From TrEMBL:
The lineage of its organism: Bacteria, Bacillati, Actinomycetota, Actinomycetes, Kitasatosporales. It holds the Pfam family DUF4191. Residues 210-233 are annotated as: Disordered. Residues 219-233 have a biased composition (Low complexity). This is DUF4191 domain-containing protein. The keyword Transmembrane applies. InterPro entries: DUF4191.
Length: 233
């Protein structure tokens, strides 16, 4: 029992420190966060307290108002902190990968499955909606990356739907803050075992490619491939 209390006491300072750090980071992008939270808490508590006096139960409604004011303040703080975080991440390399890592259960993400010399990148997520390719970078350049990766996925897992999204602002693109919501709204066409099988096939392909022996240096002149070997299509 004592050990559990000690662990809880040790966790509380860390949690409070994390909340304070989140507040400081949010305040850099949202200067009015303190006033907004104070207004939400005071108004919520004041409304319930006033109702309590009107019906003759100020203590009960005051306690309820205090709890609901705390809850409303926490909800508003969470939403504004999330908005500020997305605002700071917008346009930063790897921002989409960070969102995919926190998309939730049922999804397996693989960052940077395709990339070009300009650091445009494509990430892959596998879930009950199928395979989702998420690109970030120049919209004109990432289209070719997406097309090549989508073609490769169709060859490997032809029976699994492949969706493609481009993160950014503008027509035909998905804002970073809406990426998670957009993916969760995709129709679910696979069950759990099918998702697992798809991940296994993609993982096996990755292992095969990484373990494939490659010749070192240029091929010697005059050397011919053995009959029956692979030929170009």
């Amino acid at each position: 029992m004592a050990r559990k209390e000690t662990a809880a006491d040790a966790a509380n300072p860390g949690r409070l420190k994390q909340i304070a750090l989140t507040y400081k980071m949010t305040r850099k992008a949202d200067k009015k966060i303190g006033l907004v939270l104070a207004a939400v808490g005071i108004v919520t508590f004041g409304v319930f307290l006033a109702i309590g006096f009107l019906i003759g139960h100020p203590i009960y409604l005051g306690i309820l108002g205090f709890l609901l004011a705390f809850l409303a303040t926490a909800i508003v703080f969470g939403r504004r902190a999330e908005r500020a975080a997305f605002g700071q991440m917008e346009g930063q390399p790897g921002a989409a990968a960070a969102v995919l890592d926190n998309i939730g259960r049922g999804w397996t993400t693989t960052p940077a499955v395709a990339m070009n010399r300009n650091q445009d990148v494509v990430h892959r997520a596998v879930g009950k909606a199928g395979i989702v390719l998420v690109a970030e970078g120049n919209p004109n350049r990432v289209k070719s990356l997406l097309a090549a990766e989508k073609k490769r996925m169709n060859r490997i897992v032809a029976d699994v739907p492949v969706h493609d999204l481009i993160v950014g602002t503008g027509e035909g693109r998905v804002e970073l803050k809406k990426l998670r919501t957009t993916m969760l709204k995709l129709p679910r066409v696979l069950n759990g075992p099918q998702v697992t099988a798809t991940n296994d096939r993609l993982r096996a392909l990755g292992d095969l490619m990484s373990n494939m022996p490659l010749p070192k240096g240029p091929m010697p002149k005059g050397m011919k491939l053995p009959k029956g070997g692979p030929r170009g299509r």
